[in-house]
Amino acid sequence: MRKEGKSKEKKQHENNIRDALAVLTEDGVYAMFVWLESKKLSEIRVGLRELMSDAEIKKYLLNGKNLGEEFDEFCENLQEIARDLDKLLFLKKILERTLTYALYHAKTEAG
Can you give the chain as a three-state secondary structure string? Predict the structure, then answer.
């Protein structure tokens, strides 16, 4: 019974990653973060924020400035990134790649 619960949890995690990737692909970076916030999917959201906090990525996207912990501040920084199309496309690409790899890992774990 306990094993079934964990398996169901892993399957749900896989579905959440798949849905986040679909929102990102169809509607873009901002829409995906709003969707993650509305669904309270903090594990995925926090993981992606950590990726975006990598020193080299942060340096390119926001000249080293932090993205912000609060959602409103984070969204303001996303707007700043979106003013430069190259930066926005770079961000979307690394988020898509990261979610794709996360999906493969989740599929493997869910069985």
Answer: CHHHHHHHHHHHHHHHHHHHHHHHHHHCHHHHHHHHHHCCCHHHHHHHHHHHCCHHHHHHHHCCCCCCCCHHHHHHHHHHHHCCHHHHHHHHHHHHHHHHHHHHHHHHHHC
* pLDDT tens profile 37-50: 998 888 888 888 88
For residue range 43-97, what is the model confidence (pLDDT) as tens digits? 888 888 888 888 999 899 988 888 888 889 989 999 999 999 999 999 999 999 9
Alpha-carbon torsion, ordered 20, 46, 93, 65, to 10 deg: 140
Long-range contacts, stretch 1-10, CB < 8 angstroms, 24+ apart: 7/110, 7/111, 10/106, 10/109, 10/110, 10/111
**Which residue type, as a one-letter code, is found at position 6?**
K
* Cβ atoms of 72 and 34 closer than 8 Å: no
The burial class, CB within 10 Å (0-12 / 13-18 / 19+), for 75 is middle
